[in-house]
Design brief:
This protein is an all-alpha fold and 143 residues long. It has one domain. It has seven helices and no strands. α1 packs antiparallel against α4, α3 crosses α4 and α5 runs antiparallel to α7. The longest helix has 27 residues. It starts with a helix and ends with a helix.
């Protein structure tokens, strides 16, 4: 297997897992965590009031990201093959890449997120999406 593809998939997995941990950490950190990570003041205020929504969203996003990280590890050969890798891996790459370029259209939906939040998270999504795309392309015949 192409070592560049393996490194790309390992790095994609690691970065995705870190993103999942940050989402989970917001639950433990509470409102200061949501503020620090740029989730917006409404989310932070809901967390202060112990509303269920910020915790729920953090758990859902974190869990999806953990599953996606596992798919990258699976494609790299680090863990057993997971079902439906051929359609799921390109979909993961597409979601990250679309999130990275669609911030212009997402900003009005989430107006309380800071410009710095959009810049940093969009850049990270472009990097992660590119790693998934490169790795998936390189191991496609093996999937």
């Amino acid at each position: 297997m192409n070592s560049i593809a393996v490194y790309a998939l390992y790095l994609a997995s690691a970065l995705t897992f870190v993103a999942a941990l940050l989402h989970y950490a917001c639950i433990a950190w509470g409102a200061p965590g949501f503020r620090f990570l740029g989730a917006g003041e409404p989310m932070a205020q809901m967390a202060e009031r112990e509303h269920w929504y910020p915790t729920f969203i953090s758990i859902v996003i974190g869990t999806v990201l953990v599953v996606w990280a596992a798919y990258a590890l699976s494609a790299a050969g680090a863990i057993a093959p997971l079902p439906l890798q051929r359609p799921i891996l390109p979909a993961i790459a597409a979601v990250f890449l679309l999130r990275g370029i669609a911030f212009r259209w997402l900003k009005p939906i989430f107006p309380d997120n800071s410009p710095l939040f959009w810049l940093i998270t969009s850049g990270i999504c472009l990097v992660i999406g590119s790693l998934y795309a490169l790795g998936t392309y390189a191991v496609w015949e093996r999937l």
